[in-house]
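Appendix B. Extra example for self-study. Work through it before the problem class; the solution is given directly after the inputs so you can check yourself.
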Amino acid sequence: MGNDTVVRVSHLTKQYRKGVRAVDDISFSLQEGEIFGLLGPNGSGKTTTILMLLGLLESTHGNVDILGFDPFRTPLAVKRQVGYMPDTIGFYEYMSAYENLDYTARFLGLDGEQRNQRIIKALEKMRLSNRMHDKVRTFSHGMKRRLGLAELLVKQPRIAILDEPTQGLDPQSITEFLSLIASLRESEGMTVLLSSHQLEEVQSVCDRVGLFSRGKLISFGTVAQLSQEHFGNNVMIMLQAEGESDLLPLLKRQKSVLSVGREGADRFLITSEQDIRAGLAQAVLQAGCNLSALELRHHSLNEIYQQAFKEAGYEQT
Amino acid sequence: MNKREGSALTGLKVVWLKELQDYAGNIRMVVLMVLIILTAGASMYVAAQTLRTYVGEDSFMLLNLFTISQNPIPSFLSFISFLVPLTGIALGFDAINSEFQNRTLGRILSQPMYRDVLLFGKALGALSAMAIVLLALWLLVIGCAMFFLGVPPSSEQIARALAFYGITLLSALLWYLVGMGASIIFRQSAVSALMALALWLFFMIFWPMISQLLAYAMGGGDSFRTARLGVVLGRVSPYQLFLESSLAILNPSTRSLGVVLFSQLEGAIMGNALPFGQSMLLIWPHLTAFLASIIMLFTLSYILFQRKEIRM
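Solution. Structure tokens for the complete assembly:
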């Protein structure tokens, strides 16, 4: 990840005529080469923010700077360097995959040979070479998503913006698709901004995330930073042990333990001020129980989101 | 005020050529063209058979091919006046909402081009497609005229036929823009098609009746005033504008398109042909009205599209 800031958003606001604030005074920045996730439930303002970044929607207040350009005042300069894959991606169904990519590649001003080379390479990378001359109407949803990524590869932008890229994909396709997204950074050197409401799934590829709720960016940073921000330095330990006696009172008595939750008959989730796994193991064995699992557990993004949501004073929806 | 960065027309050629290519293979276009060629061909054949007997007697034989009818087949002009608006609407009714339905709009507008280029490109593509088809039809008529009648057309007749081609193209563009406007306002293609067709039927069937009623009501019992009002109000309809201007161009003996008093006819040599330039002067207000309507419709579409939310 580089140190250059490629996207700088400050106090961005979008208010509609009826007074509804779809995006409410958000600020964040993206460093070159990072994968940044805008995460939040549907309707939280992620797509509105993305459309303003692309200059496709005018902001009410605030500034956006993309690679030194204002997307609303100099949209062509921004559009040349930013690739976009919408949440509801569509292609001309009566055209082949190759023809669809060729059409958008023509906007880049490339000559025929350059277009051809880029398209073939991109389709190969997305494993669509054998279907390049098939009409898009015969493609599955997952294939259309891959075709969307192929379009980004043809464009070769410095920044790729992907709106809900895993929406509608089955679990196996999501894993495969996320690795393709990661490869945009690894092999193409792109900075990636993606939005999603599937927090856990995209967590794996994002360097940093921004948590969105009701138009506000309630928290952002790395997952570890967010975990620390919302849960402090506390450690979570999962312990599983079988035995005659109930372990719950024993575990609660251990030094540094803040709370103990039961996840099953023999399974406990312990929150403590520090890593006390050694002490826990000893206590369990001394009590004559069989220890079958003992591991550190990190706060999931979903837990962090719920906590951040609570701290921001919102009611659960 | 900020100046636009780069050329305002960046990407226009790409959109234009893609739209033209789409229309070339479009089944809708093919069906309409077959319909036009078959119906127009039938009326041409009947007209040519009728005119054969008058060869040498009429110096505007070619132009008569467009206007002569024989029961039960209407004239070529009647067919064209009916089918050209239909073609325009058929090409325009889903110009923009199909981009929404196919979910392609966001992806296309994120390419390096201005938003209005999509609108310009689509209109230009449709205009080019209609221009090519109508030109082919026009050449077919000229060719058939020479084949059936064995008389080459004079330069005056060619000029008048070309002017008719231009008027037809203006009419097609106007109705295309009606369809395109509806496609921006309504998200569903079926609704936009119905609205555009309803407007066309209104101007073709109901407006002549309504305009006469209005003229009668506004005329205040003065028959001359009523007649003049009837003519003026009738010209609000693009259908009427097309018919009047086409007739004036294809029938050189047409000397006036308004209400004429007997006193104004004194000294006039009835039936004598007007020179081409005079006929053009006669239809100049019609052409201006056509162009004004086209500019207004395009501006309206432009504003509506610029204000449209891109989100699907």
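Self-check: The mean pLDDT of chain A is 90. If your reasoning did not lead you there, revisit section 3.
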